[in-house]
Amino acid sequence: xxxxxxxxxxxxxxxxxxxxxxxxxxxxxxxxxxxxxxxxxxxxxxxxxxxxxxxxxxxxxxxxxxxxxxxxxxxxxxxxxxxxxxxxxxxxxxxxxxxxxxxxxxxxxxxxxxxxxxxxxxxxxxxxxxxxxxxxxxxxxxxxxxxxxxxxxxxxxxxxxxxxxxxxxxxxxxxxxxxxxxxxxxxxxxxxxxxxxxxxxxxxxxxxxxxxxxxxxxxxxxxxxxxxxxxxxxxxxxxxxxxxxxxxxxxxxxxxxxxxxxxxxxxxxxxxxxxxxxxxxxxxxxxxxxxxxxxxxxxxxxxxxxxxxxxxxxx
Length: 315
Known about the structure:
Rossmann fold; 315 residues; disordered N terminus; single chain; Thrombin, subunit H; alpha+beta
């Protein structure tokens, strides 16, 4: 059965990525610099930082071959110097780099907004709003010089609205607000902050949409409360997602811990109900670095077919 699945995926890849040089390799994707309209006052260069972080998220979900950033920037500059802009620029970069697809977009928001009311030295109220906006994200197919899909991810989250602050003492949110002005975007210190987790979730959503578009699959619906690990019987896992969540037999789905780290990988073998399926464990709990598979854990988006095929072969 696994050989048949791998063969099917190879045929699918041959249709979607005519420039791929090997059947087991994913399509080539160039990510251009993003427009930066966020107005962040720290040291981040969001036009470069966001594409680099997005590339990491895309590679974690699939076997897309992301063209290195330096090559993409060089080709982008050459296309601009030649007078190209918009879709013609994306297509020109794609041709220059032999890329199947080109991705570009705009960062419209990225940071924490702090609102303070009252005397900050005596006592007052303040609220903190996390904001991430990745908009006008266009996925262009090189061969047709046309936009396949325009994507966007916009998130706002108010943290403890109107939090009481006495005698001007800095709160944990104040400290985080100040820390963002000093640390690197996407670095280890950034990822450890609550805002870093917030940004990572937005990038995961965008990466999932890009991968689903390229491989022509609808993203799994994972927002239901019941979309969790329901039972574990040695290497058989019962999961709370099914056909109504766009799951299919053969899908390879990661299991995540509370921090969003992968602790297991399962392959769906039976559709039991609208929101119930059984799956085989491809990565045993002892093989994962971050922990073990437990009841109640949530799922990440399915792996792209080429990455899934590599995982099943490894198994």
